[in-house]
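INFO  loader      accepted 1 record
INFO  loader      residues=432
INFO  predictor   begin
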Amino acid sequence: MAQPLVMIAGGGIGGLATALTLNQIGVPCLVFEAVRELRPLGVGINIQPNAVRELYDLGIGLDEMDKVGVPAKEWALVGLNGNDIYSETRGLLAGYNWPQYAVHRGLFHMLLANTFTARAGKEALRLGSRVTGYENNVDGTVTAIVEHADGSSSRQTGTLLIGADGIHSSIRAQMHPEQPPIHWGGAIMWRGTTQAKPIRSGSSFVGLGTHKHRMVIYPISHPDPETGVAMINWIAEVTVDNSEGWKDSGWFKPVEIDDFIQHFEGWTYDWLDVPALLRGADVAYQNPMIDRDPVSTWRDGNVGLMGDAPHAMYPTGSNGASQAIIDARVLGTCLLDHGVTADALAAYDEKLCGPVSEVILRNRGAGPFGLLNMVDERCGGEFDNIDDVIPADERAEFMAKYKAAAGFAIEKLNNDPRTIPVGATVRLTEQA
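INFO  predictor   done
INFO  writer      dumping tokens
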């Protein structure tokens, strides 16, 4: 019997979470990543408690996570005039058994990569190699078509191929050739980091403004013990007319603060000076808020999709990276149940495709930021007492529905058994 091999197209967060999971359950895997060298690129992202639980179960614990980010204490929405709309504790303070982490995306990515290569060997992560297509073979195997950074190409045959190659996925494009183009709803985001003192609880995620004109601010490092200064991640966002589509060159580019700060001049409060925060930035990037329409299936024979490849979503719920980690772990359970087979991919598709597609559309409808829509509709975004605009029970009910849909309702998560039991491995001798 041949030794099974799972090939992974893409060495981002989702691809590496999949690789770590496969390594944990004893399934040989090979990751193809297009870049020649991994570097800690990007700004801040949030890892929700449901995904942190899975990282802990992968052996990536508190000490490692504290090196790349900081546990979140509060999630808050604030109106345009600086008054609170909604706030709640997060992570351990909210009663979860696991924290929520706000992390530097690049540092977190490097943590996953270094952990995987330490466990599986550097040869298991092939840099400068992009999977551009696949062939499902009559003998039940699958062949990945690989282009290399030096201009050469090769073919690698294995048991399964997992497309973790992001929103511009070549695997998805072949699986769904009639897919509509990338969807842009009109929101433009400017993202960056600034060295500054954290606000509110010291580790608060704050959404400030209206649903069409807002800031998101949260720390992604522990404060310096002497100065109290931390790395503050911020997102400045404005929604414009998108009837003519995205006209700028490229989807992601560096920009100057003066290119967009005019939208936020005057946003000064006794607890926050937004223009000063923006002008103090270390780096700033512009990108449109984009996603893709859900697809009917994440599977084609011995090929499956995961992460942004099947479910690129608006970042309004802070759960894109978290869902990619969950994808990896659910795939692991399906391999434990069905072996390294197409049946495992079918079970994985059945469990996740429909529910996660609903989250894509929910996030497109503003996700938890939908409360800002409601405030804007009822009072134009400015108010003295939020209870006069949206009663507390209505606000709490809105947030509870989102948490349930996104998979991190507290009681359910705390009481769920481990996704992958301790010591569980796939019996490879049963694989054809």
